[in-house]
Amino acid sequence: MAFKIGLLGLGTVGTGTAEIIYNPQGRHPLLNDITIAKIGVKSLDKQRTIDIAPEVLTTDLESIVSDPEIDLVVELIGGLEPARSLILKAIASGKHVVTANKAVIARYGQEIFEAAKQAKVYVLLEAAVGGGIPIIEPLKQSLGANRLETIIGIINGTTNYILTEMTEKGSDFKDVLQEAQALGYAEADPTADVEGYDAADKISILASLAFDRQVKREDVYSEGITSITSSDIDYADKLGYVIKLLAIAQKSTENQENLELRVHPTLVEKSHPLANVNGVFNAILVEGQPLGQVMFYGPGAGSGPTASAVVADILNIVGVLQSNHGAHSLDPLLSCSPSQSASIAPIDDVSTRFYARFLCADVPGVIGHLGTVFGDFGVSLASVVQIGFQDNLAEIVVVTHNVREGNFRSAIKKIQELEAIEKIPSMIRVL
């Protein structure tokens, strides 16, 4: 059986995908049964790094998703629209879909998966999270025997590169960001990356698969790295930590029916597996029972890695269709349609450790006052250290034991009212 693919987009990932399909030698033999029938592009005149027959290219993307000759649509244009509409029209036309679009899946996944279920077609999205790292299919299949409890990931290469450079070179955030933009690791507008929005898209997808819940993207708490300074990184190092932007999804310790979903800078002990994930690499740590912990690590973006994941999804669909002789019965381990809505714990109810740095007047009793206020709000301190002076102000660093975030915030609000407290430059959660 020959399977015809309609490719939407011929950018970095689209070009990488086409190159794999056009060069099947030494790869899985199923690639010999796949042809690219049409490729949707913005411009027919653009110079390309791959030889493509002119008749394959079209600027009419609508014609691809409605073409009865095409079996499978690969959406690689990104963004919310027209990607969402094209995916839904492809599904309505009875076509299977492969996408690398984390933004559209994070926001419209429920609508898309429900439509796919009704139409009895697959929507696969391995490339949407972690680039070339296989994580989506393992969550659906290989780890299916486990009760999954926690997912912690470094899933944005731009921020990981920035924090790595700040750590290794002592550079400031703005300088490293400009360097990342020059190297192509960061977009001209880096907001989605550095504010944690991209990682929030991805963790919402992982959580929906791991916990079989419909997660609303807007329920994911996100905090970026723009306030992280070289001083924070230096202090973290002295305490035995590195700072990483982590995306965390886990069952609430207070109520197992609730999920905690959050993205924020985090102090990670140097001995932790995620502490040594540097540069643009990604890693995802999954914990469940009876397996325990397993970590997926690799390149989180780029033409080759992401295209590898896209083509793997195509092969999965083609393999199932061949074995079923095209019959429209969905493999429950390949399809995805969480049936229940997720209940997300508010950030104030999350229990975690905190690092906080205070600048205060060098007067007797300041540390005692801090301890008293924290104690009044049920915040137990693991350590309190006066580390030096800055502009004639004493610098005090505290690290807490696990504490309910709402209690910690209330204590901080009260501490800010103390006359001796000049400033609280940083508050960072601790893994």
Q: What features would you describe in this structure?
A:
This protein has 431 residues and is α/β, with parallel strands linked by helices. It has helices at 12-22, 61-66, 83-92, 102-119, 136-140, 157-169, 173-183, 191-194, 197-210, 230-238, 303-323, 366-376, 405-415, and strands at residues 3-8, 34-40, 57-58, 72-75, 96-99, 123-124, 147-154, 213-214, 221-222, 241-251, 258-269, 281-289, 292-299, 340-341, 343-344, 351-360, 381-390, 393-400, 403-404, 421-430. Strands 7, 9, 10, 11, 12, 13, 15, 16, 17, 18, 19 and 20 form a twelve-stranded mixed sheet that branches. The protein has a six-stranded parallel sheet with strand order 3-2-1-4-5-6, sandwiched between helices. Helix 3 runs parallel beside helix 4, helix 6 packs across helix 7 and helix 12 runs antiparallel to helix 13 (405-415).
Helix content: 25-40%
For the sheet with most strands, the description reads: 12 strands, mixed
Distance from first to last alpha carbon: 51 Å
- Percentage of residues in strands: 25-35%
What radius of gyration results from the CA coordinates?
A: 24 Å
Q: Tell me the structural class.
A: alpha/beta
Shape by Cα distribution: elongated
Count of helical stretches: 13
